Amino acid sequence: MFVGTCALSLAFSLITGSAAAISLDTTSQDSIKSVSKVLASSVVAFYDETLKEDLVPGLFPEPFYWWEAGLAFNTLIEYYGLTNDSQFNARISQALQHQLGELAAFMPQNQTSTLGNSDQSFWGLASLSAHEVQLSAPASGSWLEYAQNVFDVQAARWNTESCDGGLKWQIFTFNAGYNYKDSESNGQFFLLAARLADLTGNATYAEWANKVYTWTNDIGLVSNFHVYDGTDDTKNCSQINHIQWTSRHAEFTEGAALMYKFSNAAKNWTDIVTGFANSSSIFQGDNGALTEKACERNSRCDIDQRAFKAIATRSFARAALAAPIVADSLHAILTASAKGAAENCNDSSEGVACSLAWSTSSNDDSEQKSAADGNLGEVLNALSAIQALLWPNASFPNATVGSTGTTNNATTSGNSSGSTGAPESRGSGSTLAASITLVLAIAFATALSC
Ligand SMILES: *[C@@H]1O[C@H](CO)[C@@H](O)[C@H](O)[C@H]1NC(C)=O
Ligand SMILES: *[C@@H]1O[C@H](CO)[C@@H](O)[C@H](O)[C@H]1NC(C)=O
Ligand SMILES: *[C@@H]1O[C@H](CO)[C@@H](O)[C@H](O)[C@H]1NC(C)=O
Ligand SMILES: *[C@@H]1O[C@H](CO)[C@@H](O)[C@H](O)[C@H]1NC(C)=O
Ligand SMILES: *[C@@H]1O[C@H](CO)[C@@H](O)[C@H](O)[C@H]1NC(C)=O
Ligand SMILES: *[C@@H]1O[C@H](CO)[C@@H](O)[C@H](O)[C@H]1NC(C)=O
Ligand SMILES: *[C@@H]1O[C@H](CO)[C@@H](O)[C@H](O)[C@H]1NC(C)=O
Ligand SMILES: *[C@@H]1O[C@H](CO)[C@@H](O)[C@H](O)[C@H]1NC(C)=O
Ligand SMILES: *[C@@H]1O[C@H](CO)[C@@H](O)[C@H](O)[C@H]1NC(C)=O
Ligand SMILES: *[C@@H]1O[C@H](CO)[C@@H](O)[C@H](O)[C@H]1NC(C)=O
Ligand SMILES: CC(=O)N[C@H]1CO[C@H](CO)[C@@H](O)[C@@H]1O
C-alpha cells in the first residue's frame, strides 16, 4: 500500500517571475549574518506573538506540530552559535526546558498524541546543539544529559520483535504509524548516536551508530546511498516505501561524516560518506539548489515537508565540517541553496516572507508568505540554508574530541554565564495548547499516500 501511489506530475511550469528577492552576498560574512538576523527575527517575532496569546513556552500554533518547534529552536540555537547574536537565547532556553517532560527526555505527557521517536529526537538534537554552543545551563541537569536521555530511552526501544531490529516510528501503540519503521526515526537515532560519539568520545555511541546504520541497510531503508521513507513491520519489512526526502538523506550523510571522523577515516565510513555525498545530487534543481523533489514538482508538500530543507541544509553543513573530503560537493549545494533561498524571500515593511521553491526547475508555485501567515517551514529553510554558509568558520562543535575518548569540557561549562536559563513558572493552563494535543499525528500521512 505504500509503494507506487505517488502520482508524479511531469507538467512543467515556471515559477512566476514577479517575486521579490532579498539581496545576499554569499562571499560576505556580514551579508550572511545580516540576512540571517532578519530571518531569525521573523521566526522569533511569530513565536513571541503566539506566546503572548496564551501559548506554553516552546510551541508554535496549529498547524505546526510539536516536532517543528524542536526544529525551529535548534535552528535558532545554531543561529546563535554561528553569529554570536545572543538576543534570543533566554527564550530558547526557556522553551527547551518547558518541553522537557517528566523523564527529562523531551516526552511531555501532554504531547503524547504527536510524539513519535522522530519527533522526540528533533528536540534531543536541539538540546545537543545547546550543549555545543554552550547555551547557559538549565536549572537542573545539563543540555548534554537531556540529549543522552533521549538516546537512552530510544536505545531501550530498539525493537527486535520484527525485522531483526529498528525503531518504530511511533512510541505508543495507539498512535497511527506504530507498525511503521521509518528512516527518520532510525536516521535521527543514528545521527544522535554519531554526534554523541563525536562529542563525548564514548565508544558505546559509536557501536550503536554502526548497528543502526547496518540495520537500515540490511532491511533496505538505505540502499546504494539512497534513503527511503519506511516499511511496514507487520510484513517483516519486506516492502519499502521508496519516497526520498532531502532531510533524511542529509541526516544520514551527517551521521556518516561524523563516523568517518570518529573512525579516523576508516575505509567503510569513507566509502559511505562519499557515497551519500555523491547521491545528494538527486535533490539538486537546475541551478544546483535543493528541491524537495518528492512533492515540490507537483506542489504537494504538506506542512511538515515544507520544513525539510531546513533539516537538510543544517546536516549538509555539519557533514562538510566533519568530513572535509566531501566538503566541496556539499558546499556547492549549500551555496546554490542559500542563493536560491534569498532569491525566493522578500523583506518588506510587512516583514520577511519566503516561498518553498529555490530552483527554476521546481514546479512549486506557492507564494512568498511570512512565518505568521503559514510559511514557518519556508522561513526556517531559508534561515538554515543561509546561515549554513557560516559553518566553515564556526567555533562549535569543537573538533578537539573524537576517538581519543576525552570529554569535551563544554559538558561542564557552568551556569555562570548568565541568568537566562531559568524557566518561567510552569503549569499555567492553556486551552490552545490543549487543543493542539488533540490533533492526531498525521505528520507523514501525505508521504504515505503522496
Ligand atoms: C512580499 O511579502 C509580502 C508579505 O510580507 C507580500 O504581501 C508581498 O506580496 C511580497 N511581495 C512579492 C513581490 O512577492
Ligand atoms: C560574542 O558576543 C559577546 C557579547 O555578547 C562578546 O563579548 C564576544 O566577544 C563575542 N565573541 C565573538 C567571537 O565575537
Ligand atoms: C505540558 O507539559 C509540559 C511538560 O510537563 C509543561 O511544561 C506544560 O506546561 C504542559 N501544558 C501544556 C498545555 O503544554
Ligand atoms: C551553578 O553552579 C554552581 C557551582 O558550579 C552550583 O553550586 C550551583 O548549584 C549551580 N546552579 C544550578 C542552578 O545548577
Ligand atoms: C557511555 O555511554 C553509555 C550509554 O549512554 C553509558 O551507559 C556508559 O556509562 C558510558 N560510558 C562512559 C565511560 O561514560
Ligand atoms: C566499519 O568497520 C568497522 C571496523 O571494521 C566495523 O566495526 C563497523 O561495524 C563497520 N561499520 C559499518 C557501518 O559497516
Ligand atoms: C524477516 O526478515 C529478516 C531480515 O530480513 C529475515 O532474517 C527473516 O528470515 C525474515 N523472516 C520471515 C518470517 O520472513
Ligand atoms: C563518488 O563520485 C566520484 C566522482 O564521480 C567517484 O570517483 C567515486 O567513486 C564516487 N564514490 C562513491 C562511493 O560512489
Ligand atoms: C572563514 O574561514 C575561511 C576558511 O575556512 C577563511 O578563509 C576566512 O577568512 C574565515 N572568515 C572569517 C571571517 O573568519
Ligand atoms: C577538561 O577539564 C579538566 C578539568 O578542568 C582538565 O583537566 C582537562 O584537561 C580538560 N580537558 C580538555 C580536553 O580541555
Ligand atoms: C565552545 C568552545 O569551547 N569553543 C572553542 C572551540 O575551539 C575553538 C578553536 O579551537 C575555540 O576558539 C573556541 O573557543
UniProtKB/TrEMBL annotation:
GO biological process, one term: fungal-type cell wall biogenesis
Gene source species: Curvularia kusanoi (Cochliobolus kusanoi)
The keyword Disulfide bond is assigned to this record: no
Keyword Glycoprotein: yes
Any one GO molecular-function label of the UniProt entry: mannan endo-1,6-alpha-mannosidase activity
Keywords: Glycoprotein, Glycosidase, Hydrolase, Signal
Protein name, as recorded: Mannan endo-1,6-alpha-mannosidase
Signal sequence, start to end: 1-21
A Pfam family it matches: Glyco_hydro_76
Class of this enzyme: hydrolase
Region described as Disordered: 401-427
